[in-house]
Amino acid sequence: MKKLVKTLSISALALSTASSLLTAQAEEEHVLRVASHLPPMTDIVELAAKNIAEPYSIELVEVSDNIQYNEAVFHDEAYASFAQHQPFMAMFNEERDADLEAIQPIYNAVVGFYSPVYQSIEDIEDGAEVAIPSDPTNEARALLILAQQGLITLEEKDALPTVDDIKENPKNLQFTSVDLLNLTGAYEDGVELVFNYPTYIAKIDLTPEDALFLEDEEDNTFAITVVVRKENVNSEATKALKDAFTSPEVYEFLEKLSEEGHLRPAFELESDETTAE
Predict the structure, then answer these.
(1) Angstrom distance (rounded) from CA 258 to CA 138
(2) d(Cα 72, Cα 153) in Å, to the nearest integer?
(3) No. of H helices and E strands in the chain?
(4) Global pTM?
(5) What's residue 159's pLDDT?
(6) CATH for 30-109+221-265?
(7) Are 98 and 105 in contact, with CB atoms under 8 Å apart?
(8) Which of 32, 112, 177, 187 could tie 194 with a disulfide, CB 3.0–4.6 Å?
(9) Looking at residue 125, what DSSP letter applies?
(10) How far apart are CA 190 and CA 171, in angstroms?
(11) 30-109+221-265 and 112-214: identical CATH topology
């Protein structure tokens, strides 16, 4: 009888342990790790975390550069990322043979060119140095802004433009490719024209109001977007993630930053939510 009781106790313990492991595993599957970089992106992730529906939760994974967040999602170390626009993601997919998908645009950063030297476009001198991002997608974005301002003209093509596609350069602008994270340093070094994002230029207490000129973008091509792996696009977890990132609370936060000129929301609230606001 003692042997039987002991056997039953061991069996009960094994069942209890297995049940605990299964419960822990299920809870872990509902924790959606989202890799992000700097404010306001990290702020938005944390705000989405407060508004995601049960049983899901969001865990912010902060990274220090523009490579780690894609690698983390690609290698399933994070469920999603929130740090980039769709063209940048597409470039990563092509380079790494990856399967990332942009599922929801959230906001358009108000980007433009800053100058420690000039007060207006008319002041730009012949041969001025222009610091533009070294990655192809942001290089294209910078060139398109310069074309909007009439400082250059570009060859018409379906692909994103590069410096080699400059057709006319009446001011003989001299282009220097700089890593996106080092553009603020280029400004501090006195480069005459520097492309930058509000997130990075804020490190030296500048805002879009200090820019020499800004981008005039009507669509969401370069909107900062939630990204997941292709296999997760239609999952319940992804649906909950999208709902959290497009919640009224997130939209209100974006509207406040929009009033300060930092960004523009890239989505609209549902009509009933808009009415409630």
Answers:
(1) 22
(2) 38
(3) 10, 13
(4) 0.77
(5) 81
(6) 3.40.190.10
(7) no
(8) 187
(9) P
(10) 19
(11) yes
Helix, strand, coil % (nearest 5) of the chain? Answer: 45, 20, 35
Task: Dump pLDDT digits (tens) for 98-156.
Answer: 999 999 999 999 999 999 999 999 999 999 999 999 999 999 999 999 999 999 999 98
Strands 174-178, 129-133: pairing kind? parallel
Structural tokens at position 113:
């060119």
Sorted by where each begins, the domain ranges of the chain are 30-109+221-265, 112-214
Contacts of 3 (CB under 8 A, 6+ apart): none
**pLDDT tens-place string over residues 67-77:** 899 999 999 99
Q: Which residues of 149-182 are buried (b: 16+ CB within 10 A; e: fewer)?
A: bebbebeeeeebbebebbeeeebebebeebebee
Question: What does 3-68 look like in DSSP terms, one character per residue?
Answer: HHHHHHHHHHHHHHHHHHHHHHHHHHHTEEEEEE-STTHHHHHHHHHTTPPTT-EEEEEE-SSTTH
Per-residue pLDDT reduced to its tens digit, 54-69? 999 999 999 998 889 9
Q: How many CB atoms lie within 10 A of CB 251?
A: 21
Is domain 112-214 annotated with CATH 1.20.120.680? no
β strands within the chain, DSSP E: 31-36, 57-62, 80-84, 100-109, 112-114, 129-133, 153-154, 166-168, 174-178, 193-196, 213-214, 224-229, 263-265
